[in-house]
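Quick question, first post here. What does this chain look like in 3D?
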Amino acid sequence: SVTWLLWDIAYYGNKLFQSSFLIALTGEDATLLDITRASAINAFVALLGYYAAAAIVDDPDCGRLALQQTGFAITGSLFLLCGCLNDRLSSTWLVVMYFGSSFFGQCGPNCTTYLIPAEVFPTSMRAMCHGISACAGKLGALVASILFNLVGGERDLFLISGYASFAASLITFLTIPETTSLDLHEIDKQWHAVLRDERYEGPATDPQYLSFYERNQNRLCRR
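> Answer (accepted):
Ran it through. Tokens below.
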């Protein structure tokens, strides 16, 4: 839920204020045609990113977790670079980096923040928990629409988006389990064992499917 919220702060902040982002990248003297052309190319690049995500999201060598974590990290890096180097690089390089953030945003969190909540919860509560996650995302969009309207300069728009993406990448690394190649019935079996106060033994507790926190909780709790 929190990663979806943070992603929608970055994503909807970009989409709702895209004209401000593009003007900051192309320059104040950009014409309406220049901005429209850049916006159309950006949408096409984002579409390519979404198709790329669909092609690799089920690959065990990549998977949901790595795709989301890496997508957040790369997108956050590109946003921060656009913000920090806004007055040092040419508009061409800035626009290329912005297009890159659109590609990796789609080939990553914009796909996985919707997909992962549909898989990590037991069937009996999956719809409710996915709805809560989606609600958190829309709350992020609301926060973005208010926060970005209060921010003074375009540089800060990029920085906020970058910080939100990096925070989401860290939360993904620490707390989100992997479900690629895991039979989702095993999650139900694990949940039913918990309800019956029984010990579950099965693939769902294999370290490759656990989050960093789950793999290390005993050691972390002892500290």
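DSSP finds ten helices and no strands in the chain.
The radius of gyration is 19 Å.
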